[in-house]
Design brief:
mainly alpha, single chain, three-stranded antiparallel sheet, globular
Length: about 350
Amino acid sequence: MNPLKNLSLLRKLVQLSAFLLLVYGSGLGAYYLADKISGALPALSCAYDLNGSDICTLIPFQHQMDHRLGPVISEGGDVLKALLPTLITLGTFLVFFVVLNKAFCGWICPLGTFQELIKLIGQKLGLQRIESVDPRLVQKMRPVKWAVLGLLVFGFPLLTGLGYLNHDLGDPFCKICPSRILTTLANGDASELVVDTASTTTIIFSLIADFLFGLMLALALTVRQPFCRICPMLALHAVFRKVGLLRLVKQASPRCGKCGLCAKACPMDIKEIHTEMVKQDVTFEDCTLCGRCVEFCPDKDVLKLKYATFPLFSADPRYFKVRKKAQTAWEKNTLRSRLAKSKPHGVTEP
């Protein structure tokens, strides 16, 4: 298949470029290039990575709850004035978000890129992949991202600023975020893996962070996008997904109810892409706009990635046949299959 016509390959190139920019971007300018771009990126780009070029919007949200809004409320000050920095951060976030919508998850986020890389390693090792997570488990996991956003990004930091919790709970999501460990490790800094013994709270959060990062690594070898499913950034995206210019749209055909290839291709196991027969905008709350469902839809123009009113990429039966063949060949080419082929005839495993 022509690489320039393979949407997944093009996405990988964009992801790699974004990873290099966001994790090592200070080489393009000042030490904190983030100060020159934005402190409200709609993707997990960690401030603890001092070589990065941006920081995600979850960081200032936590700090503003803890250091600005909470103290003003507790002292009886001007709440609207205290909310102004949060509104500015949100406005900056929306400027970015409107441009690419939830594609910041599927095309830009360093942590999402890293999980896909681990999945590729697992696939090439020949590990048994979990093609689709049980739908009942998917339904149970979906509220978790909202709980993480509400409690760890806004709730606990605000309670800390109000004086109800100790200062160690001022930025609880940052303390457990896998991106904090990933981006610092990518720059040769292993300090975030060390258990912080400053207090009981920091010990607990350090242990949770290390466990979560290790669990994500282990799961990503066989499960697609394990952390993305509970990421608070995905929840924040879901709140504003209707204002984004980039969208996934569907013109359902009678075959949609029987096919299901789009849902099988979806790394987030969104079965509603397959079952939705009425709505045209199918940018569901867990969608990352990766476009895989469009690639693996065999019916002409049933699924499309559209930018405003302009179609960018549409389902096509000819593309599907070539793409499916290429995917099958890619999945068959594993270390296990190569080792099996290299064994002499007549030799079997004990």
